[in-house]
Amino acid sequence: MVATGVAAKHGILVRGGGAALQQASKVTAIAFDKTGTLTIGQPSVTNELILIPNPSIKHVENLSQFWRYLILTESGSDHPLSRCIREYAKEKLKSNPPDTNEAAGEEENFKVLKIQEFGGKGVKATFKLSGQHSKSVEFYCGSKEFITENDCHVVDGNWVDVVADGWKRDAKTIVYCGIKIVESKRNSIGALASQRGVLAGILAISDVIRPESFFVIEKLKNLGIQVWMLTGDNYSTGTAVARILGVNESNVLAGILPNEKKIMVEKLQVKLQQKQHLGCFSFNKEKNSVVAMVGDGINDSPALAQSDVGIAIGAGSDIAVESAQVILVRSDLRDVLTLLDLSKKTFKKVKMNLFYAFLYNIIGIPLASGCFYFIKINENHVLLSPWVAGLAMALSSVSVVLSSLTLKFYKPPLSKPT
């Protein structure tokens, strides 16, 4: 109780109580989400490569229509990347307004039929074209794999990948946009007929790394704690960020979906076989790997719930906060170091109190029960009066409480980036 109060004083809300603190004191590995956790969660579009106008891309004759498709598609998601893409597209639409004739009939060109979000992959929107009763447009926005699995391809060769790879090396997230025309008539097997989709453009998004991330990761490594990074981003971008932060590339798990993050945390929790030696004998001892997960978004909630210590960024989504045992109210990663340090000192204090209580009672109980009555000191038998024994018992509890209250004077470790 004292420790949770001290934690709250330092901006750490421990919803899991003593059990969460006990697990935090034994953490051997910490997995961080990238976007919004190691980064500040305010991404911005830095580069674009738009393949419109293009004769192969039908029903998107101009840039203004492309940006409108993109705005409406990304309105189906609350992901930070979707929000920044919407804002960027709105600004582009202002700088590329349709001409007078286009503007007059713009609202009647199409209407939104359905918007679907695929966690960790992207967003798909279906638009009904006016005057085209048998045709609709499907607009995709997400990862390259998401675009590819929906049969959208690059019309003009692989040069787009060359551009994208350059952006990835700069630790930027690449978002792909694809378009496909779907016929409402059925083909020979009863499915809706559709043309092969095409890539309409790519966007590069950059998110600033939190200043304290460098310091926190360095300190965790110095403490002997393994640091992992989980991201739905592509491997090239993930490893580029890891190199900047000092995370081992082998500890980067990239291109994973929300449920796969949970699976990865489970794998980190597997029991490790440690060989113990006792004289001339040796035996295997199983030891659990205690894993903490730090995240901020809906995509992180399964992993936060699975981990031994789920730590949510206070400014993150409500679902992530509800799934976590610990909440960093100030959204400062340095509080992770405070949590680990406080939990270790708390259970060091618990062990000290137990040792003191054991020592106190192993001496006091025999003394109070008359075990030393046969011993005489100055012609007096060694025996405690009942009122003295009662007072000693009360003082035992008081001393333990006072010892615990010394945690009130706890000061966090030096946790400022140098």
UniProtKB/TrEMBL annotation:
This is Uncharacterized protein. GO terms for cellular component: membrane. The chain crosses the membrane at residues 354-375, 387-410. PANTHER family: ATP7, ISOFORM B, P-TYPE CU(+) TRANSPORTER. It holds the Pfam family Hydrolase. It comes from Clydaea vesicula. Keywords: Membrane, Translocase, Transmembrane, Transmembrane helix. Its main location: membrane. One of its GO terms (molecular function) is P-type divalent copper transporter activity. One of its GO terms (biological process) is copper ion homeostasis. SUPFAM superfamilies: HAD-like, Metal cation-transporting ATPase, ATP-binding domain N. It comes from the Eukaryota. It is found in: Membrane.
